[in-house]
Specification:
This protein is an alpha/beta fold. The chain has 21 helices and 16 strands. The longest helix is centred in the C-terminal third of the chain and has 26 residues, at about 365-390.
């Protein structure tokens, strides 16, 4: 009892209190269990034991070093729990290993992570610092008053801060109107046009609506939906090329089938296309280097682009200034006479959201402000790509514009990407633009799992079209929307989109929501039989 009221116990009690009450007051006990898994609990015990050992053996250390060690431990403890809150996922061993494997890349996201901290985060960190710094002083009574006040403050702040916000940035968006004519139905490509498939990095459909292009009116994308099954770059690009989502794996699973049946290989072998990839990010990441160089005839990725053009275009942690694709594109098109399939992957809108030197003051803006400026620059690059093909190709060139995934900026309590299946991360832009004729085609709805089959079907025209082909062609009137989604490297959310309904299952709170495709009219499903039926569909498509 004497130890409990001693000055040595104040931080220990604050550790315990922070652990126990973190995320508990706003939700059910199942949520608390989800965010207090074995790894977090073991880490907390480790920190408590190490901190206690430092205190009781501090005469073996210099006091200044003791304080520094304890400050580091407390900071790590706070960062672990705040990571879970900011990114809305439970910390796992896989995520820790992933972090250390890619530390040089992920460290660049530190500013964005700290930017998302709320008042409660800084209050917790500051209280711990105070209790550590004053621990050696004879201020036991004062520390206990501060601790008591802090615990009450934590209860008040936590009751409103641990929120999976229902913020939806689309709700107050004004209806946009376009004068550019859009076609919804498309039967076949005439001849063998060039294909230029451009991937914006982390751009949901709703953000592209706000950007102006010299050639394409993006407001035409409003009210039309196109989904990807997992909001993670390597997994998403793999799906676009193969039609396979592989939701049960966090890494690409390569076998002979996917290496031969993917879109670039099919275009090369069946239609005599020359295939090339220009990617301003690195492919030496998550096994992409074992996939893309084997399915494309040439690959230019960040390392290649830096060697040739690094003196002209700056780099950042995740990529390069996207204008670098233009000289690379000239190298490809100047030497080939056969039809081309060129996949271009951009990078500036990847966190921390790179902005060119001319607008470098945007570094100190909010992440969303920087992101929107970076997106404007990506669209400028897109316009330059269109201009280049318009001026330098006698063959009709078809631009296909989309994104690998979306990005969260607080909607549903999520940030960045990977851990939310709501539309801001999974509903991406999709359009087909004929560069010479100016024709614009946008399907009413579709998914990246059906992209490969749709393109090949449109190339084949009406030949050998089976009922199954038509059901997977999102320009066909027979198309059937059916997609199961899952968060990357996390079990926090799973989803199913079918016909005119979307279901989102929150694993942490065992809640299944039904909504329309715009994610309005949300209704919790309480019928246990219906709930089980829907979850069976979801899990059967994941395993």
């Amino acid at each position: 009892m004497e130890w409990f009221f001693s000055k040595k116990s104040t931080l220990f009690i604050f550790y315990i209190f922070s652990y126990l009450f973190y995320g508990f007051l706003s939700f059910s006990f199942s949520v608390w269990i989800f965010f207090h898994g074995s790894l977090v609990t073991i880490f907390t015990l480790f920190v408590l034991i190490l901190d206690s050992l430092i205190i009781y053996n501090r005469n073996k250390f210099f006091n200044q070093k003791t304080t520094v060690y304890r400050l580091i431990l407390w900071t790590l403890f706070v960062v672990v729990f705040h990571y879970q809150e900011v990114y809305q996922t439970a910390l796992s061993l896989d995520l820790v290993i992933y972090f250390f494997q890619h530390l040089s890349l992920l460290s660049s996201d530190l500013f964005n992570f700290l930017y998302q901290w709320k008042l409660i985060h800084w209050v917790i960190l500051g209280i711990g610092f105070y209790l550590i710094v004053t621990n050696h002083r004879d201020e036991t009574k004062k520390n206990w008053i501060i601790l008591s006040f802090s615990l009450i403050l934590l209860i008040i702040l936590h009751s409103g801060s641990w929120v999976m916000s229902d913020l939806n940035l689309n709700q107050n968006q004004k209806k946009l109107y376009s004068t550019q004519k859009v076609k919804r139905k498309f039967e076949s490509f005439s001849g063998k046009p060039n294909f230029v498939l451009v991937f914006l990095e982390g751009v949901p459909r709703k953000h592209l609506l706000k950007i102006k292009s010299s050639y394409i009116d993006f407001s035409n994308l409003q009210d039309f939906h196109f989904w990807i099954p997992m909001p993670h770059t390597s997994k998403s690009l793999f799906t676009w090329m193969t039609g396979k989502s592989q939701l049960d794996h966090t890494r690409l699973q390569l076998d002979e089938s996917v290496m031969e049946s993917n879109l670039p290989k099919q275009l090369e072998k069946k239609h005599n296309y020359f295939t090339s990839m220009i990617y301003t990010q690195s492919i030496y990441f998550e096994g992409m280097d074992q996939f893309f160089p084997k399915i494309f005839q040439t690959v230019w990725e960040k390392g290649d682009l830096e060697k040739r053009y690094g003196g002209l275009y700056p780099s950042f942690s995740w990529g390069m200034e996207d204008r670098v694709v233009l000289p690379a594109l000239k190298q490809i098109t100047n030497t080939k006479k056969q039809p081309l399939f060129v996949m271009i992957g951009l990078s500036q809108t990847h966190s921390p959201y790179f902005v060119s030197k001319e607008k470098v003051d945007y570094f100190w803006k909010s992440p969303l402000d920087r992101y929107m400026v970076a997106l404007e620059e990506e669209v400028e690059v897109l316009d330059s790509i269109i201009s280049y093909w318009k001026e330098n190709s006698s063959r009709e060139t078809v631009l296909i514009l989309t994104a690998d995934h979306g990005e969260s900026f607080g909607e549903e309590g999520a940030h960045a990407h990977n851990y939310s299946l709501y539309n801001q991360e999974t509903d991406v832009p999709f359009l087909i633009y004929f560069i010479k004729s100016g024709e614009l085609y946008i399907p009413e709805q579709g998914t990246s799992t059906d992209f490969k089959d749709t393109i090949l079907s449109l190339l084949d025209g009406n030949h050998n079209q089976t009922e199954e082909n038509l059901k997977s062609n999102f320009f066909s009137s027979e198309y059937k929307l059916n997609l199961v989604l899952k968060t990357w490297n996390s079990e926090i959310q799973k989803s199913w989109i079918t016909d005119d309904k979307k279901y989102v299952y929150h694993s942490d709170r065992d809640q299944l929501l039904q909504m329309d495709l715009a994610e309005k009219n949300r209704v919790p499903i309480t019928d246990s039989i219906l709930k089980r039926k829907i979850l069976n569909v979801i899990y059967s498509n994941i395993r």
